[in-house]
Amino acid sequence: MTGFAALLRKELLEQWRTSRLPVVATVFLLVGLSSPLLARFTPEIIKAVGGDQFQIVLPTPTAADAYDQLAKNLGQFGALIAVLLAMGSVATEKERGTAALILTKPAGRGAFLVAKLVAIATTLGISTAIAAAGAWFYTLVLFQPLPLAGFAAATILQWLALVAYAAITFIGSTLTRSALAAAGLGVAAFIVLGILGIAPAIGRYLPTGLGAPARSLALGRTGVDVFGPTIASVVLIGALVGVAWLAFRRQEL
Amino acid sequence: MTAPVTSLTASSAVTPPAIEASGLTKRFGAILALDRLDLVVPPGSIFGLLGPNGAGKTTTIRILTGLARATSGSATVAGVEVGLDEPELRRSLGYLDQDPRFYGWMTGRELLELVGRLHGLAGSELRSRVDEMLARTGLTAAAHRRIGGYSGGMRQRLGIAQALLHRPQILFLDEPVSSLDPEGRRDLLELIAGLRGEATVVFSTHVLADVERICDRVAILDRGRLVTEGQLEDLLAAHARPIYRLVPAPGQSGAVDVLVDRLRAAPWTTVASAGDDLVRVTVSDPVAAAGGILPLVVAAGVVLDAFERTRPTLEDVFLELVGPATADDLDGRGFIRPREVSDR
Known about the structure:
The complex is a heterodimer. Helix content of chain A is 77%, strand content 0%. Chain A is mostly helical. Chain A has one domain (4-248). In chain A, helix 3 runs parallel beside helix 7 (148-175). Chain A is elongated. Chain A starts with a helix and ends in a 5-residue tail after the last helix. The mean pLDDT of chain A is 91. Chain B is built from eleven helices and 16 strands. Mean pLDDT of chain B is 85; it is low at 1-13. Chain B has two domains: 6-238, P-loop containing nucleotide triphosphate hydrolases (Rossmann fold), CATH 3.40.50.300; 241-311, Alpha-Beta Plaits. By secondary structure, chain B is an alpha/beta fold. In chain B, helix 8 packs across helix 11 (314-321) and helix 9 runs antiparallel to helix 10. At the A-B interface, helix 1 and helix 5 of A face helix 2 and helix 3 of B.
């Protein structure tokens, strides 16, 4: 991991200077704020738009609906943003020649990759925390307070799922010289994981499987099996980084 | 087009070579970009890697800096075996690409600070080295500007600054003056010449005058093969044939044409050419030519403003060994067509 500290510093500065962190944080904040609002006012919006044409009786929204809306939005918009953040991270540097600039210095290729993924995970972490804070506050205002510790733990699991999507895209970015191909891999993985996630035996050990324990934690339920899905996702991310490193250390620049 | 490989390696030095390559070969499919290159670069020398576009200069530098992998053969740089993921190799070397690329969002100072940190510099030492390099490359005023707004010449100078920042033992410069204006070119050549004895510089170019100006050793590559390698003076002595320059007085074009025809017919003439008010005669037998040229001038009725025997240049050596490229030798980009091999 030669040169990791210097490279991480550069990557974090790049996240800020290229406006990735401010933009993603803003988008996530809007997602966080809008989720409880949507949950709270959807029945009224439908009623106002549909008038007397709809005879559907919608249940009274609850704090659980607010959380579900947040989880759904982060699972879709968040995953898409994770793919966008990771798609060009290595491929673009190889294509533009800046990877060659760095890697003719005393910098290990493992450090080069890990610094990038840590910076992406940091941007996603800060943004997810901001989204969660906004959602928790509006849930408090519009419904009732959700347990803070459980909500925070749920946020960490949501973040972990997003990092897994970023890591899948990241390996595509490392293996190819095309950001578009990497994005294709990330989106394909998102769809495949969504399909596989339907099968309970496999699904709970996939990043999509983090949703159920996260929901239970956020709503204050006890006896939730968090460790299995969490460890599975951490191992998946580690394995993806390992494969990326094995491939990257053999690549000519 | 190619000449047999000759070697004029200096007498064996006691100190280990800065760079040593043995049988370095690089293939891209059927294309043979580098063919069993053997190279020894003594420490402290300014080593010119010469050849036409497509000769294998950049491929050689990319392998030696660990950016590309040799298909076969081996090489050491500063005693470290070259490899793709070998940070130790990079501690002792500086590298400037022929088309240096940087992060457009960074400022020049930030880039140099990043490079310095990667080389283990910190604190006041880092700041003073960065300041020194910015000043040395004339970028102090632009240090806080984004690199994305730099001109081509400024980027090239920033590339030189980052390559020299950590006082490398070995410096690889791939076509370093290609995008510099004449003043920048002169400054860089002086800067490189100033490193003589302090660092080993490997300097690739196809501009022969630059090599002649600053290099003490030269290797000539052609289509991936080492044609010759040695001390510049030794190469000039061994390969360049004597040349006579005749400057006719103006307004004698008819007589000059006659003279050139007669010179071409002389048995001791290798090449006789006229152009830019100058007749240039390359000879195979200098003694016979010394006695034979002036009588031909008199017989042709040409009045000369000047007549001299000149020192052969590196260009003469290059043309002698590699020969001028013909239209068939070049691809659409002006690069020498690489050799293709069937035994993959």
